[in-house]
Design goal:
heterodimer, A: 504 residues, alpha/beta, 8-stranded parallel β-sheet, 3-stranded mixed β-sheet, 15 helices, 23 strands, 16% strand, B: alpha+beta, Alpha-Beta Plaits, two-stranded antiparallel ribbon, 5 helices, 20% strand
């Protein structure tokens, strides 16, 4: 066989003075990077298999290990970065599509980092969240343009559309049982229940163990229709039609047959060991009118008691598409930006297709307002929300709530090695291997997620208080609270924000 | 009395409990120094593994402890205050009846292979958490 030109991406340094040959690293590496030689009591590392997940570094009791990005000795070339060389060599050797996981990692502008928030000074008082209540509760769903009140009996004559009540404007993104492990799914579901928000089943169906958590689950109906049954629709709090995903707009999904274990087969309702292929389009949706038929088929099937969400990827014409979704009867429009994550996608798609969520959100909100239909659907944005300030900025740009996926996985222990597609996640998240899945104790996972959301909620209240705003409702679409810094005028115009330095 | 509970479904087989146990019972209490010493104590907790199953097992401090009952010299005794089963090494003659009678196989010869020493001694004071529990990265051992 010809010599492979692929070079190790990571360098493993073992401090011999600290290493006690306890072999924790050997036992913890699912990629068999570390090995122990009994005859001379030594440890060895084969760097070419290392994915840089930092599991061994984290668990090494003496801190003897360091895994670093390996400097390649190629002549420096701004055009040919090591990542491009690595991918090119891999393709030259295999002739295949290179897969990737998690969200786009290319350095496109992160607009959150170019938006600054406002605060109150002198002429309007700020609010101390420790002394006064600040409301961050959020309701998702269609709102009425006007309310008809029976003043004599003090009751509403208008029939309100079903709403989702969230204790904070953050939901957990769609991550299916299959793409993530049972324990990861359980951590998220239990955390959603404890926090008072919702998580999303993804398109993998819902394991019967989680039916009792239905009040906190949005279930997905995607192009593969996996696991879609009357009970599935019945137990959920809301239903989401997945049209696209930010990491791979226009691309379907593929869960390899070897991952379809008996439990997953039961959840997805497909035979054990068969590939679960989600087609790129829904084969019954080729127009907004077709989408409307599915939205109303679902509403009919669930007695108009559950909001229906439509999830689309942020693509060039996203504003018009979102408008179509609202007109098709969607109660919630979820938009997933280019930095949205995935369990597996062609790298070329992940890194090059779609637009940043900030621009998509600003344009969708603007368009729906201009058309006078903004109240008919809530907007939930996804793809690269990293902190409570990102959430606040998204809301000021016009979102009702955000989905967090990668942030939730990070709380569970993910180290962003981007190898989910291999199914060998050392952290027990993106794997179905029983040896690896038990590395994630859902008790710990749930606790960490609840802590994260509690911290974000406290920070959001601090930010709102500083602005002198006591309810998140008053921030929604309030772009005066945002100023652009380091952006071109055209970008600021698309975001609908003024440049930093400009007053009201 | 608090006991160490085993959650085998979350044991990741890293053996860090064994390592911290050795350190706890070493004279220096320092991790790297302890492991440089070839005469270091033996761990009093063992990770049992087969296939996908693994769990850390240590003395259960049974209510009807056969090791106490079968000990010829009365070296194995129960501390009345804490309820922990301990070995009085001065009285132990190394007959290994405790090893024979332990239903969990957690009594072992100590590192020097003379007396019985390698058995969980419930090493912490009231209010503290044993190091095997405290250092388990996945809470596969809990103290409750």
């Amino acid at each position: 066989m010809a010599k492979s030109l692929l070079f190790p991406e990571f360098k493993i340094e073992r401090d011999a003075k600290r290493c006690i040959a306890c072999q924790v690293c050997v036992r913890q590496c699912a990629n068999a990077v570390h090995s122990y030689e009994e005859d001379d009591d030594t440890l060895w590392s084969e760097e070419e298999r290392c994915v840089g997940c930092q599991r061994c570094v984290t668990l090494c009791p003496t801190g003897a290990l360091e895994v670093r990005r390996r400097e390649v000795g190629f002549r420096e070339n701004a055009n040919w970065e090591p990542a491009f060389l690595h991918r090119l060599y891999k393709q030259a050797e295999t002739g295949g599509i290179v897969l990737a996981s998690m969200g786009c990692d290319r350095p496109y502008t992160i607009y959150w980092d170019h938006l600054l928030l406002n605060a109150s000074q002198v002429t309007n008082p700020s609010i101390d969240p420790l002394r006064e209540p600040i409301e961050i509760r959020t309701f998702l769903g269609r709102k009425e343009a006007s309310l008809d009140v029976d003043w004599e009996n003090l009751s509403l004559k208008t029939k309100l559309a079903p709403q989702l009540e969230l204790s904070l404007p953050v939901l957990f993104s769609a991550m299916s049982y299959g793409s993530i492990s049972y324990n990861a799914f359980r951590s998220i579901v239990e955390a959603a229940q404890e926090i008072g928000t919702l998580c999303n089943s993804g398109e993998g169906g819902l394991h019967p163990d989680f039916y009792s958590f239905g009040e906190h689950i949005i279930v997905q109906v995607a192009s593969g229709r996996f696991g879609v049954t009357p009970e599935y629709l019945g137990v959920a709090k809301a239903i989401e039609i997945k049209i696209g995903q930010g990491a791979k707009p226009g691309i379907g999904g593929h869960l390899p047959g070897e991952k379809v274990s008996p439990e997953i087969s039961r959840t997805r309702r497909i035979p054990v060991g068969s590939d679960a292929i989600s087609p790129a389009p829904h084969h019954d949706i080729y127009s907004i009118e077709d989408l409307e038929r599915l939205v109303f088929a679902i509403k009919e099937a669930t007695g108009y008691r559950k909001p229906v969400s439509v999830k689309i990827a942020a693509v060039h014409n996203v504003a018009a598409i979102a408008s179509g979704c609202v007109r098709a009867g969607a109660d919630i429009v979820a938009i997933d930006g280019i930095r949205g994550g995935t369990g597996a996608a062609p790298q070329v798609i992940r890194d090059n297709v779609g637009i940043p969520i900030e621009l998509a959100l600003a344009q969708v909100d603007e368009r729906l307002r201009r058309e006078g239909i903004r109240h008919r659907a809530s907007i939930v944005v996804a793809g690269g929300i990293r902190s409570s300030s990102d959430v606040i900025k998204a809301i000021a740009l016009g979102a009702d709530a955000v989905y967090v996926g990668t942030a939730a996985l990070l709380a569970l222990g993910c180290h962003l090695c981007q190898k989910c597609y291999t199914g060998r996640c050392n952290w027990g998240i993106a794997t179905q291997d029983p040896l690896l899945t038990k590395r994630l104790n859902p008790r710990i996972g749930k606790r960490r997620l609840v802590n994260l959301m509690r911290a974000w909620a406290l920070e959001m209240k601090e930010i709102l208080g500083g602005m002198g705003i006591n309810a998140i409702e008053s921030l929604r679409g309030n772009r005066e609270q945002l100023r652009a810094v380091g952006l071109r005028e055209e970008e600021a115009r698309l975001l609908g924000v003024k440049m930093a330095g400009e007053g009201w | 009395m608090k006991k160490i509970r085993i959650h085998e479904e979350y044991c990741i087989g890293c053996h860090l409990c064994e390592i911290t146990c050795v350190v706890k019972h070493s004279p220096s209490g320092k991790l790297i120094k302890t492991f440089r010493d070839t005469n270091r104590p033996a761990p009093r907790v063992r990770v049992e593994e087969e296939g996908y199953v693994s769990f850390a097992l240590q003395c259960r401090h049974c209510d009807d402890a056969p090791c106490v009952e079968n000990c010829l010299t009365g070296a194995m005794y129960r501390d009345e205050e804490t309820g922990v089963v301990l070995c009085d090494e001065d009285r132990c003659v190394g007959c290994w009846m405790c090893i024979m009678s332990c239903p969990f196989g957690v009594a072992e010869r100590n590192a020097e292979h003379t007396h019985i020493g390698s058995k969980c001694d419930g090493c912490v004071k009231k209010g503290e958490v044993p190091p095997c529990v405290e250092n388990c990265p996945n809470e596969a051992l809990t103290y409750e």
